[in-house]
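ugh ok fine here u go
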Amino acid sequence: MFLLAFLALIVERLTGYPDWLFKLIGHPVTWIGRLISQLDTRWNRDTDDFEIRKRMGIAALAVVIVVVILIAAVLQDVLLVIPLGPILLILIAASLPAQKSLERHVREVASSLKHGGLPAGRRAVSRIVGRDVQDLDEAAICRAAIESLAENFSDGVVAPAFWMGIGGLPAGAAYKAANTADSMIGHRSPRHEAFGWAAARFDDVINLPASRLTAVLFVAAAFFVRDASPLNAIKAIRRDAKHHRSPNAGWPEAAMAGALGIALAGPRSYGGQMIEASYMGEGGRRELVYDDIHDALKIARIADALLIGLFGVLAFFMWQV
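structure:
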C-alpha cells in the first residue's frame, strides 16, 4: 500500500483539504472527534474510581480504533473494485496527512510577526500550540512555531503516511483515530489522567517509527539547505532527544534544532504553570527571529519531498515484487 500513501501525499501536497469540502462535510478527524467526545461524556464518570476510569478509557480507545478500521477496510475494499473507485480512495487517503495546512499555519506565524508585531504573532502561534502565549516575545514565538512544525511534521505527515504504507487506508485511519484520541483525552488533567492513559501510551508507541524517520529526513534535508548542518543535527539527536519529556517529540525537534543551530523546547508555561523541560540543540540560546521560521520551513519542505520520493521508490519495488 505504499503506492496509496505515495499518491495521497502528492495529492495533499498539491491541494490540501479544500475549505469548501470541510464546510460541506467536515473532515475525518472531526468525525472521529465526535465519537471520542461521546465516549468521553458517557464513559468517563467523575463518580468512578481511578482504575474503573482507566479501564473505560482502554475500552473507549479500542472502540474508536475498531470502528475506524472496519469502516476504512470496507470502504477500501469497495472502492478498489468499482469504476473510478481507486481515484476516490486516493482522495480519501489524502485527507489523512496534513502537509499543506501545517506549512500554511507555521508560515502565518512568521508573516504575522513581520507585519503585525507581537500581538499578531501571539494570535497566530496560539492556533498551533497549547502553551500560554500572552507573554511570549518574538524569540519565544518563533521557537514555539518551529517546535510545532517539527513535531507535527512527524505525527501529522510522516506517521499517517507510514502507517498507510504499512496497512493501507485502515491502518492510516486507525493511526489518525489514535492520534486524535491522544490530543483530546491524553492529558494529565484531573478528568483525563485515568481515562486518557491508554490513548497517551498507545500514541507514544505508534509514533515511535515516524519520529525516528522524521529525524532522518531532517538530517538528510539539511544537506540541501544553505548554512544548515546535518552533522550538528545528528549530534543534537544523540545528545538531546532522550532528554525530551516526550519519547518521540525530541527526535524531530533535536534534529531541526541541530540542523539550524538553534535551541528548541526548554521551559514553557501551560495554564499559568511553568513546566521545566530540557533544551533541544544549543545555538548559544540565541534569540530567534521570524526568518528562522522560514529556514525551518525549508528543512520541512525538502524533508517532505524526500518522504514522497522514498514512498515512490518503495511503491515501485513493491509493484515489481
